Structure formats: structure tokens, C-alpha cells
Amino acid sequence: MKILILLLLVNLFFTNIILASGGISGGGIANIPQGQDREKYHLGKAIFNQEISLEKQTNSNLNDQEERLEYLQGSLPNTEKRRVNLPELSGKLTEEQLQALEYFIQVRFNIKLPEKKKDKE
């Protein structure tokens, strides 16, 4: 009887070791930047979460903003695509705010956006 109980305990012990997961991985949480990039990140986060009120800008390039915001919307994970509608912000963002939003999305969702090409004149 003692041997049977010992055998069961040893079996339970080794079964738990073999089936253990090894821990929880971090995944999905972005490293918040430090320094000057930190301000840019938090501005983009506030715009993304609609925590600041935006008014129509008079000197913004509406078509350019709409194109960039549609690209950002398409780059988001499906859960976020349903939650936010970035193209509705077109014409309401300054260039600084749009760059901050792009930066936030790059860092938060680990998305690589294409580099902007500057026209040579």
C-alpha cells in the first residue's frame, strides 16, 4: 500500500512538472519612450483615445491627412479598427498632432510605417 501511494505521488509530481507552462509572456505592451519622444507618444495617445478636443484646421492639407489616416486605420489590429475611426479626424489635426498619432501607433502596435519621401525641388 505504501508503495502504491508513493508511486501515485511521484506520478503526480512529474506530471505537474511536464505540463507546467513555464510562466506568462509579456507580449502586447509597448515600451513607452523616454525623453522628448515621451511627449510625442502621450500626445498621440491622447488623440487616439479621443481625450482631447480637436477643431477644424484651416491650413491643413485635407487629402494628405485623409490618405495618411486611412493608411493608419488599415494598419491597426482588428479590435482597434472597430473601436476607433481615424479618417474622421482628417482636417482636424495639425502636422505635429498627425506625426504624434503616427508615432503612437508605431510604438503601441509595433507597426512599421513607410518612410515619407520629400520632393526634390
Low-confidence stretches: none
Overall form: elongated
Strand portion: under 5%
Q: How confident is the prediction overall: mean pLDDT?
A: 82
Question: How many helical elements?
Answer: 5
**Helix content percent band:** 40-55%
Tell me the number of strands: 0
What structural class do helix, strand and pairing data support?
mainly alpha
Nearest-angstrom radius of gyration? 24 Å
User: Between the first and last Cα atoms, what is the distance in angstroms?
Assistant: 91 Å
The ordered H/E elements are: HHHHH
Q: Main β-sheet, in a few words?
A: none
Task: Characterize the structure shown.
The longest helix has 18 residues, at 2-19. With 121 residues, the protein is mostly helical. Helix 2 (36-48) crosses helix 5. The protein is built from 5 helices and no strands. Helix content is 55%, strand content 0%. It has helices at residues 2-19, 36-48, 62-75, 78-83, 95-109.
Question: What layout of secondary structure does this protein have?
Answer:
Elements: H1 2-19, H2 36-48, H3 62-75, H4 78-83, H5 95-109
Helix pairs in contact: 2-5
Characteristics:
mainly alpha, elongated, 121 residues
Write a concise synopsis of the structure shown.
By secondary structure, the protein is an all-alpha fold.
